[in-house]
Task: structure prediction
Amino acid sequence: MNPKILALLCLLLCTAAVLAGPPLDDSQEALIKIRNDLEYIFSDPSFSAAHWGVAVQSTLTGEYFYLRNENKAFMPASNMKLFTTAAGLLGLGPDFRYVTRLLAHGLISAEGVLEGDLIIRGCGDPSLSGRWENGKITAVFERWADSLQARKITAITGKVIGDGRYFSDGRIGAGWAWDDLTDYYSAQISALTFNDNCVDLIFMPGDSLGAAARYRLEPNTAYVQIVNRVTTGSRSKLGFWRDPGSNKIICEGTISQGSKERRDWITVENPAKYTATVLREILLSRGIRVYEEAFEIDELPGYLPVEYKTVQLASHTSPPLSEIVHKINKDSNNLFAELLLRTVGRELEGSGSAEAGEKAAKQLFEPAGITPQQFYAADGSGLSRQNLVSPMSIILLLRHMREQPAGQAYYDSLPVAGVDGTLKGRMRGTAAKGNVRAKTGLIGRVRALSGYVTTRDNELLVFSMIVNNYNVPTGTANHLQDLVCERLANFTRK
Result:
């Protein structure tokens, strides 16, 4: 070969080698492979009309494993609870407790007569229910009746009044769908909350096909009116509707002749009045006479401030906030999240509104690097379609919370894949089971999953996956998100 040609070839080979740089190590090759894998998953043609927002980052190295529309705004559905519970833990602390007070507005005579009103003053406590009372819905009210009887109170000449003025905005979140308002997940918001602001409606089949179904209420209250159009049939298909602005509940459909009890939870109108009504009913059942009816304090224009000439007769203290946050995230409890957001607003900004809660939250999140453009909260639960967050803001939040004193309570509150909460039925039989801790999110055409996953090298990753406007079954979106979690759980740099 001509020496000049040979020299030229050598030069070209050397130049190519220099331009190519050193060979990739195992870690770099692994990162390239997983990025390609994730790109392939998120390019699924089934989602060609949808919008994906994704961010995956190592908490160890800070490397981004994958990014797609990470700074764009998406409807997060219940991923909004990640922000609400973080704001609660950061702003109030995991040991924060609510206190609901039972007050006498009047004098107690020597004969044991309260000559005045009985007031229940709420402060956003979600725990006046059977959730913390071994299923006994009215347990707190029974203890209050005990307290009154211990004081020898035998009669109340005035009203039983529910006071929910600790919160300042309406009972319905901004942007909530009107046709969801009968369902438990859209329960009305009030600083005075009882039994998740629902009645438990339990249906049982009748004695024969075509017979009217039987039912019972828990609590057994006259506050709601039940219109029972349910019959006994060959299958169960029940529907419920509460007339807007009323407590008339219409029940239709069939319940299978051989079926067990069917329990549903139906929302009530005006939770504060509901609470006062049930307490009054309990007192009457215990032999304590109540001369007047139950009211919500806003029904009594000009009523004196609660602080004026009142005496505390009893109180109820909630479990610590860490336990409440656990229920919010594990079970995706919308009402509890709404109560928490307004409590943050009231405690930190002096106003018990969603707007004040959002203002306080934005300030709390500044150290995490979350900008106002990355986070807008119309409500605390994610039920509203007006909420907007970016995947990047979520992973910034997740990283920040791991560094905080309340970080463990936050981490422990998230559902565990294949084990509990809203992830109990997902990722079973994979490396993600018992590994992934993440918050789900679901409203119409929105599916989200964000949280933590540990790789095979014991490297902790934070991730956020949000899809908006998909037109395939939700199970397909779940499957795709599960595949990503499985791939991340199996990742190794070796």
